[in-house]
Amino acid sequence: MIWKRQIPILIVAVVGAITLFGWFIDQPNIQSFVDDDATQWYDILASFAIILGALNLMKLQIQKVARKKKGWPYSLIAIGGFIFAITAGFIVKGVDDSVAVWGAHVTTEGTVFKWMFDYMFTPMSATMFSLLAFFVASASYRAFRIRNFEATLLLVAGIIIMIGRVPIGSLISSWFVMYILVLALGIYVNFWKKNKMITFGVVGIGLAIVTIAGMMTGWPLDKPGVFYLPVIQEWIYYYPNVAGARAIMIGIGLGIFATSIRYILGIEKSYIGE
Description:
This protein has helices at about 5-20, 30-65, 70-90, 110-145, 150-165, 175-195, 195-215, 230-240, 240-265. The chain has about 270 residues and is an all-alpha fold. It has three domains: about 1-90; about 95-145, no CATH class; about 145-240, no CATH class.
């Protein structure tokens, strides 16, 4: 029991503590371990994990074919593709050593592995990503439905980004955007005051102000810049978007740190099956 429970927990705790706190300790031996040794250990363990994962995948696919479970022909294709990839990667190069040595053959034109990558893997990957586009469109439709203020803000920002980053966005006058904003303000006032006279008054005054300002300035396409779609989308992309992305990364970092502490202290034991 000690080899299956206490020893793995001890190894994870010691190595995890050294690797985590090694970034904050200015000691050459510890820095060398964190920068070189720990990375190499990770690569070696990850390689063996990939081998075990591939063998387990083949085991499940072979069992599925042997028992003729639902979808077993697809499992047969998966087994054939796995065998072909292993053969092209480790057994048959398809060219002489003068053209490509082992290792370099995976990126050399004319080899079996390169042919498989260019004419089988790449088209199938593109097909999968193309299918994902339909799921993304469906998810976007559900996310952009106006249900509350946050969903409305997401919808408006998404529309501005999509239109502002295509050529047609630069052809939309900032004055047209101002007219749209005046109408949106009228809708808000109507929901707020429930009074048609006030609503018509706000909309009328707003349209008059925009029209007079446009006539006085000559209706320039990109002036005032604060209402020009390419300018608005650039601001959204570089400020709120970057701030949100950084907040997410900070949250991920805190989550990783908390999980690491749980592993080091032996609280998290899922890696030993508990």
